[in-house]
């Protein structure tokens, strides 16, 4: 029997031989894996997708030298659920972390760091965690958050401690003036310094998996010169404005009202805030270039797979909003994903529909480790290497939002301060709150189309290529019934297909898995 298609028995589970240790790495050795994750970075704000400002020249170049996906999606447009999903390779519905307040409830077998540790890898977190993991989860743990480096000020230089105090002073909102200090005080610079410092000390000890997690361009929206002024007068207007809020629905209208109550002056200063956001994207991109060039100087590039991605997007002015909160619009759910370095064949743009959760099984195969039972992501190793793979497996992808229950409105409760969504000083506002996150909404993206459906059966159908802002709902129109039906079947297939596979039956029954953890189409 062809070894590729053979199966081996393991307890009560039939495991494809393609998932066994060593299949991908084999004689080529075991590569380092670096996942670079930004926080709240919208996918389409880059020259490679036609944006007027050159925000990500380095990532764009690496996308051309390696590959980049313009149909990569987060499993959930919220930080904690997305990060747990990435690390476990499991959708938020089965990890039970479908909100930022359920991280301790994460359900999984093994996550990326535990598999790496068992495989003889060093594990490193430098930057923002905001997942189920704790400092005991990694070989090296150096966390940062949105307001600076974790830990006492005594562990920082006076300049960095002063900058972190500045971050706290703007209370997750914005700075209408250039941030104090220099680029060296900004968190992306310090994170890259820490990452390269660790590589200098331990990078040659054993192979490693590094999660370099940058807490921006998430708010507080701030940036120093020259980035503060870099795009002044050059940024095109958002595709839509607040006049589209009634079209988008009540959740969006309420979010706009709450956001402008909690962040006084947000709408009036939207141009400045957008410029800060885009300046920070460019600052981050420059620091990623510094990190990768540093890896080259240390002789670490050729044996390292680099992935640049984000946990979710940002409205960035769409519908008159910043941040996130309501809906599963592409500005929130579609994420950048660029892969280059070890084992990546130059392919440039790829139109395959992939998910953030696909990174975990991809890393497992590159490490020569078996993909743990319960992982729902699909390995991208064959695709990245330029080998044959079932393209129909990646014809669609899903994303979901909401912690469940019924939709909550002001009629149910309207005390934003008591709930914790809003501070009393008109600076703080948490957009992920009782109102914006209640209920559940799912979407499927396939080809040029996107279908969304909530738990009450309300549906929306958009041609994303012609209507990227998702304004013209085509659901129910006679001329689109065929594509509507096709997407409804695809969404239902996903909804059934990602039911939790664990625990598998303990006795007698055999559990079949496709090569590379493909969910629907084996090779």
Verbal overview:
With 523 residues, the protein is of the alpha/beta class. 29% of the residues lie in helices and 17% in strands. The protein has helices at 57-65, 79-88, 92-95, 112-118, 158-169, 187-202, 227-230, 245-248, 250-262, 270-297, 330-333, 359-367, 381-385, 416-419, 434-437, 481-497, and strands spanning 7-10, 13-16, 32-39, 67-69, 72-73, 122-127, 140-145, 148-149, 208-217, 304-310, 337-341, 348-350, 354-355, 396-404, 439-446, 449-454, 459-463. Strands 8-7-6-9-3-10-11-4-12 form a nine-stranded mixed β-sheet, sandwiched between helices. A four-stranded antiparallel β-sheet has the order 14-15-16-17, covered by helices on one side. The longest helix has 28 residues, at 270-297. It is globular and about 60 Å long.
Strands, helices and their partners?
Blueprint: E1 7-10, E2 13-16, E3 32-39, H1 57-65, E4 67-69, E5 72-73, H2 79-88, H3 92-95, H4 112-118, E6 122-127, E7 140-145, E8 148-149, H5 158-169, H6 187-202, E9 208-217, H7 227-230, H8 245-248, H9 250-262, H10 270-297, E10 304-310, H11 330-333, E11 337-341, E12 348-350, E13 354-355, H12 359-367, H13 381-385, E14 396-404, H14 416-419, H15 434-437, E15 439-446, E16 449-454, E17 459-463, H16 481-497
Helix pairs in contact: 6-10
């Amino acid at each position: 029997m062809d070894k590729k298609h053979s199966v081996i028995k393991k307890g009560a589970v039939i495991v494809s031989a393609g998932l066994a240790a060593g299949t991908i790495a084999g004689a080529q050795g075991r590569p380092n894996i670096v996942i670079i994750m930004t926080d709240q970075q919208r996918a389409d704000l880059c020259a490679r997708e036609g944006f007027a400002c050159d925000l990500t020249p380095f990532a764009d170049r690496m996308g051309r030298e390696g590959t980049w996906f313009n149909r990569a999606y987060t499993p959930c447009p919220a930080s904690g659920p997305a990060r747990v999903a990435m690390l476990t390779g499991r959708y938020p519905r089965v990890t039970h972390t479908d909100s930022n307040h359920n991280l301790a409830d994460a359900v999984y077998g093994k996550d990326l760091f535990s598999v790496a540790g068992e495989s003889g890898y060093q594990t490193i977190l430098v930057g923002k965690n905001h997942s189920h993991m704790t400092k005991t989860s990694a070989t090296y743990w150096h966390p940062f958050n949105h307001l600076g480096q974790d830990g006492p000020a005594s562990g920082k230089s006076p300049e960095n401690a002063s900058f972190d105090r500045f971050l706290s002073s703007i209370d997750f909102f914005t700075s209408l003036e250039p941030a104090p200090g220099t680029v060296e005080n900004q968190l992306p610079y310090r994170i890259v310094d820490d990452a390269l410092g660790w590589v200098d000390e331990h990078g040659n000890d054993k192979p490693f998996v590094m999660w370099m997690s940058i807490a921006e361009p998430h708010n507080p929206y701030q940036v120093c010169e020259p980035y503060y002024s870099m795009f002044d007068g050059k940024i095109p207007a958002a595709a839509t404005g607040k006049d589209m809020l009634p079209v988008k629905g009540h959740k969006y209208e309420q979010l706009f009202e709450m956001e402008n109550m909690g962040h006084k002056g947000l709408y009036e200063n939207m141009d400045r805030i957008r410029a800060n956001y885009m300046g920070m994207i460019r600052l981050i991109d420059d620091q990623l270039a510094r990190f990768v060039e540093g890896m080259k100087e240390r002789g670490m590039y050729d044996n390292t797979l680099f992935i640049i991605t984000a946990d979710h997007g940002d409205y960035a002015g769409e519908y008159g909003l910043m941040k996130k909160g309501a809906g599963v619009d592409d500005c929130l759910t579609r994420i950048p994903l660029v892969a280059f370095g070890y084992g990546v064949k130059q392919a440039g743009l790829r139109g395959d529909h992939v998910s953030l959760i696909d990174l975990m099984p991809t890393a497992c195969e590159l490490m020569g480790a078996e993909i743990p039972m319960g992982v729902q992501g699909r390995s991208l190793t064959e695709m990245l290497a330029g080998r044959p793979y079932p393209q129909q497996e990646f014809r669609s992808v899903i994303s979901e939002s909401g912690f469940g229950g019924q939709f909550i409105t002001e009629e149910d409760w309207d005390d934003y301060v008591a709930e914790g969504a809003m501070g009393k000083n008109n600076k703080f506002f948490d957009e992920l709150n009782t109102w914006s996150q209640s209920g559940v909404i799912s979407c499927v993206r396939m080809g040029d189309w996107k279908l969304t459906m909530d738990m009450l059966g309300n549906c929306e159908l958009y041609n994303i290529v012609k209507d990227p802002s998702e304004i013209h709902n085509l659901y129910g129109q006679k001329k689109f019934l065929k594509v509507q039906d096709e997407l409804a079947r695809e969404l239902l297939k996903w909804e059934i297909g990602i039911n939790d596979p664990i625990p598998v039956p303990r006795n007698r029954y055999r559990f079949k898995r496709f090569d590379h953890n493909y969910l629907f189409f084996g090779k």
